[in-house]
Amino acid sequence: MAPRIQLEKAAWRWVDSVRPEDITQEHIDLAYRIAVSACKRGTCRRNCKGNPNCLVGIGEHLWLGEIDENTFHNIDDPNSERRDKNTFVGLTNLGATCYVNTFLQVWFHNLELRRMLYMCQNSRAEGHNIESDYEPRTICEHLQYLFALLQNSNRRYIDPSGLVKALGLDTGQQQDAQEFSKLFLSLLEDTLSKQKDPSLQNVIQQQFCGQFSYVTVCNQCSRSSALPSRFYELELNIQGHKNLTECITEFLKEEKLDGDNRYYCESCQSKQSATRRIKLHSLPPTLNLQLMRFVFDRQSGHKKKLNTFISFPEVLDMSPFLEAKGILLLSFCTYELSAVLIHRGVSAYSGHYIAHVRDARTNDWYKFNDEEIEKMEGKKLQLGTEEDLAETVKSQTRKPKSSKGYHCSRNAYMLVYKLQMEEADQTQINVEVPAFLQRLVDQDNKKFEEWCSEMADMRKQSVDKGKAKHVEVKELYELLPAQDGEPYEFVPVEWLKEWLDDSTAIKAIDNSSFLCSHGKLHPDRVGDAKRISHTAAEILYGRYGGGPRIDRSFLCGDCVTQRCHVLRLKNQLNEDYREVTNLAKAQLKSGDPGFWVGKASLRQWRQLALEQLEEEEEETKHTNCKTNGEKTSNSVKENDGDTDEMKSFNEDILCCHGGLSIQETERRLVSAEVWSKLKVYFPKAPEFTQQQDSCQQCMRLEREGKENEALNRMMASEQKSSLLNLFQEKNRPTLQKWPQDTDILYIVPLFFVDEWRKFIRRPAKSNPVSSVGNSILLCPHGGFMFTYDSMLQGDAQHIALLWPAEWEVVCRLFLVDQTISICRICDPTQDNGNVQYHTQPELCRECREGFIFQQQRDLREYAQATVYVRKVIDNKRMIKEAPPEFSMSGSEAEDEKEEPKVEGEKDPDFNQSQDGAKRQKLSEGCSAVAIRRSMRHRKLRGEKALIVSANQTLKELKIQIMHAFSVAPFDQNLSIDGRCLTDDSATLGSLGVFPESIICLKADEPIADYAAMDDAYQGTIFFCQT
């Protein structure tokens, strides 16, 4: 089928040969494309918008033919959420809690820990009413309920959000997994120690706690001292090692204490060189080995992950590492691998955690990946898949071959070994859920079964509804095409698509947007509607309702006639444009009547005529849009267009009073023949004959403007000569060095002086200044707002000082609403020359205090302000200036040039003449304040600008500084004006850090205690609680 544009042209091709008054019903049918052939299925990829008879590609392919029942619903099979037989239950990942899920699965498979947790007293669970939901409160209650669900739930996975919330963990931020393990076991140990049953109080120690001692031997007297200690896991350094034995050996190796690290020997009563090592004395039944894959990198200031391959055995003999020897001991030193915790990802702050755990009852290995649980084949641990998914790095290290009984991993970060037992007691392997917990599990299973039944019913209802819709569509779609000569109606194509799209609710048919200003079908909207048979329309309107119903009587003859008239004028426009162009080139003969036409109008008249014709063509659209609440593209253009764009013909020679413009260069004369042709397209255009005079009002205003301009120039010249020094900023009085020849100076707003100088420079373009306006420097009570000291500082930027003689001239030339002066009063009785300064009017202290308070408040409540951080070396600022910035504006560059030079440095600009008439030479006694200084901050090397807000804390600022200077927060010493900033929790506003402040940064030397650095980066709510 032809494209939409070709169908549009074909529908109106007849207008060239048919006049508007000769239009018949046949022409109306052509305009509405009634006779265009319908498309057949398989011939169109998508629906033809320009053909109202095309009913292909509107969604019918989803319903025609045989359909699978599963397409009638979007509800998954509830049985897919059911736990498979002889499998374990997974845990939902709440966002970034995969590390929590792995540890929970490992602890759940510790049968002794699970058995002891079930024995804990839980009066709330025992007395719980099964009619309401059970909500655990304590950590122990949460673990009890969670383990019971993991053991006997019918669900494929359960939600651990209750426990995670109780721990105060952020579900959107991944925490340090190794730190979480240590702190959680410590928290659980503290909780169980409060149980009344003595056998439960030491469960954590009995399962995970071993003993070692730090043994130090003095090299001088050979005295040995031991410091006993307990451990719940061994933290093994893996850097530079290949297997687990090397890691344990390094953990126990001897360390030399010498130099500054010497040991204080009590026997020698002095510091002596010594050796120190760790001695293992006893091991727990569950041995946790932490492989330290996550270390702090000082260069980047962040943690990083070590991708070192580490080999570890399935059976671990710990007897070589124990101090005590003996046959009895050796039987309690053999451990079997029980779990391997894996971290996949390139960063220590992200990635994914999974766990491989061995089932103590069957010795089968399972991979726990949040909700997904996979059983390993052949009762063997298989890490190959995890290593294949390791991060891709440029220097990919080949995985070393592992001997039988060994495994190798670059992602394992924790190994769990269980003490090997000769014969496993069946009572120890089978752990039964207590009756009070099983009752809660049964309650949850009942809810799950009810949910499964509800989902199954919803699936069935969706299938039944879909089947009924399938039958309806198959029957109705065959009735949709309108046959030649039979009655028909129009319905929106979008409604038909919604009717065939079962995912959306079907609304009533709405044809109101298709109506023209005459209340009938608009010809331009026929592409958005489809012509269907009257029989099909009766069924659709009967089932779904709506209206108005549009049949053959709604084809609008008035719209077709108007469109025919406009299109014919458009075709005539090009011919008239060529004729007018040729006629306008000829010179107007003397005696022939002429007409004034704007030059711009004459250049653009074809475009203006075309736009006017299109507006007439779209006139019915505009009326319809107002009726139905729609917006047209033309109305948007009118609102968003340039206001200076020409809207109507000859408006460029029309003055504001409606007469002929006085700008003769903007218009030209054309012949009466040219004007008659233009009047056909612009009948409402203003008409001006050759004899018509220009607007008298505009001519009078022009004369007055020239007279006012001359008066302004004369006034500016007089004022400039009277106040020449004020205009040129020469010989200005200053408060820093009070002039000797006067005891009084007058004050005016600096705004008044700036506006006056603008007028003097451009009197023809600026309005003259009539009044001084000193009242803006006064408070509502009439008092002055500034003190002498404040004017010496920042408040001087609001005022200008005048000599008494200049003040007399100002009073004569301008209206003065209030005289403001400052007087110097010397006390002749005092030999020390005591001088006081008073203002008239006097200072209003109440308003001044309020003004200062508001200023300080604004300083403490800023947002997105700039502060500067300068790095200090050896308590000295780096004061070498940075290269000039080439992005400064012209005024800024001028300010930079006028900044005074440092003492002792020559400035040729201030040493050009001997008499000082042109330039004033600087001397030691001369105040540099008289010279205009740059207000720009001069950036120094070693300094960086940061964007801060008053309500952010010092800790947040230190993090910004860390990214800017690569200095860790705990190595930063910050100060401002010699005052140290130490309170990390305080806000910058409360610490006195204001916009444009300069903060000095002194960095401490790096320390060698990596553990201290790691601790500084722990900050979760859970960590803080413990």
Automatic annotation (TrEMBL):
Positions of region (Disordered): 616-643, 883-923
Biased composition (Basic and acidic residues): 898-909
Protein name (Swiss-Prot/TrEMBL): Ubiquitin carboxyl-terminal hydrolase 48
GO cellular component: cytosol; nucleus
Any GO MF annotation of the entry: cysteine-type deubiquitinase activity
Subcellular location: Cytoplasm; Nucleus
Biased composition (Polar residues): 625-636
Family, as annotated: Belongs to the peptidase C19 family.
PANTHER family reported in the protein's UniProt record: UBIQUITIN CARBOXYL-TERMINAL HYDROLASE, UBIQUITIN CARBOXYL-TERMINAL HYDROLASE 48
EC number: 3.4.19.12
Domain USP: 89-420
Gene Ontology BP, a term: proteolysis
Major location category of this protein: cytoplasm
Keywords: Cytoplasm, Hydrolase, Nucleus, Protease, Repeat, Thiol protease, Ubl conjugation pathway
Span of domain Ubiquitin-like: 948-999
All residue ranges annotated as the DUSP domain in the record: 461-555
PROSITE patterns for this protein: DUSP, UBIQUITIN_2, USP_2, USP_3
